[in-house]
Amino acid sequence: MRKPYFCAVIGKNFGDEGKGLAVDYLSDVPGKVLVIRHNGGAQSGHTVDRPDKRFIFHELSSGAFRRADTFWADTYFPDLYKLGEEMEAFYDVAGFRPVIFADINAKITIIDDVLLNMAAESARGSLRHGSCGMGIYEAKCRSEAGFAITIKELLEWSEEKCVKRLREIRSVYLPRRLQELREELPEQIKESELSQILPEEYEELLQSDAVLENAVKEIYRNLQYITPIKDVASFLNSYDRVIFENGQGLLLDTDNAEYSPHVTASKTGLTNPCEFLSHWQFTLDEVVYVTRSYVTRHGAGPLPNESSREALGIKDEDQTNLDNPWQGSLRYARHENTGGFVSAVSQDLQNLQEYNLPMPACSLMITHLNETGNCVLCECGDYSVEDFCELPAVCATFGQFYLSDSRYAFDIKLVK
Question: Rounded to 5 degrees, what are φ and ψ at 244?
Fold first, then answer.
């Protein structure tokens, strides 16, 4: 039996590196392509540009313009309430609707997860974690507490039964979770009343039956776009290339103690792909780490070597990462020295040993080179991209380089 070519695309830093561009590029191959969304959920914002169109992908794969199919793994938290909006927006841009497959055990994000996420982040005030406000962490906490809702269950239930289950979650789980959120607040906020973590507007929404009923109607309307998969191994073998599209960046991994609590709720590196491949008895052929020629961070938390965009000589405004009430403004920095540049990657590659997987080809994609004069900006100085790729620590870690000096996949150059 032929084996698909398995590739993982991982953001090397704090997200916003150009993973959408990378997936779009890697999807441009002969044969059938599948892109697996396996961490986080609808909080991802991966941009793909064409000279005549542009789209920001959240739950659809960034290979969709190439007609790559999307697969939601059981470690992904899809938001079926929001899916229809993205699907129709893509149809308006591309003229077709992508195909989505899902592991029947994938657990969904519900409307109350989003509302709790927004309420808790609002309560933290200036001490916000930098959450996207999309409910992924709340979905994870609810699922781990025994209140998960899976794709399989949705397909088996009527709309009325789903509404009943959401009411049960509100009556049994919600009060407990509100108390936990209050206890998790920083000390300087803890002394406030519990109502502070549930501002009036959120309290009303979390008590409204209409909110639940409308959400369920939208969820079941959008189930039409999903094809459930039971036999995952056979399904994967029907493809020529399978790409893991990671959300967010390696430094935001849930287990990254250095940047906690300003991290995400999911595994952002090789952990999920390794576990997935090991379970279904496949191996990884290539891992592509993606970085800008400088570093960005959207949201609260430490950012080594932080600088202004102007001080770095970057004049172009970021068209995707606009200011928003949950994450604030996009922040900028230089890369650490070359040892620091590769350290997180080296640690991430150790996941392969844990799952007894052979070492794949390890590649680096450097994006936004047009904004820095084809240089990589580091704390110890600026390197031409050619010199940077020849630095001992860099070339010892990465066997080949994809260089991007525009917003378009067709301009990417492969250097070995």
Answer: -85, 120
DSSP secondary structure, 136-195, as one string: HHHHHHHIIIII--BHHHHHHS-HHHHHHHHHHIIIIIHHHHHHHHHHHS-HHHHTS-GG
Q: Are 94 and 61 in contact (CB under 8 A)?
A: no
Q: pTM higher than 0.90, yes or no? A: yes
Burial of 109-125, coded b for 16+ CB within 10 Å and e otherwise, reads: bbbbbbbbbbbbbbbbe
The answer to whether 159 and 116 have CB atoms below 8 angstroms apart is: no
Burial class (CB in 10 A: 0-12, 13-18, 19+), 311: exposed
What SS3 state is found at 329?
coil
Q: Which residues lie across from 306 on neighbouring strands?
A: 333
Instruction: Give the helix/strand (H/E) hosting 109.
Output: none
Which residues have C-beta within 8 Å of that of residue 343, sequence separation ≥ 6?
Answer: none
In 3D, which of 45, 35, 44, 38 has the Cα closest to residue 66? 35
- pLDDT tens for 300-328 read 899 999 999 999 988 766 655 455 454 56
CA 278 vs CA 291, 354, 362: distances in Å: 27, 10, 18
Query: How far is 274 from 352, CA to CA, in rounded Å?
Result: 6
- Region of 328 please: left (phi>0), alpha (psi -120 to 50) or beta: left
Each residue's pLDDT tens digit, 256-312: 989 988 888 889 999 999 999 999 999 999 999 999 999 999 888 999 999 999 999
Quote the CA–CA distance of 108 and 134 in Å, as a whole number.
12
Token pair, residue 397, equals 């870690």
Residues facing 37 on adjacent strands: 72, 245
Q: Where are the beta strands (DSSP E) in 306-389?
A: 306-307, 330-333, 361-367, 375-378, 381-384
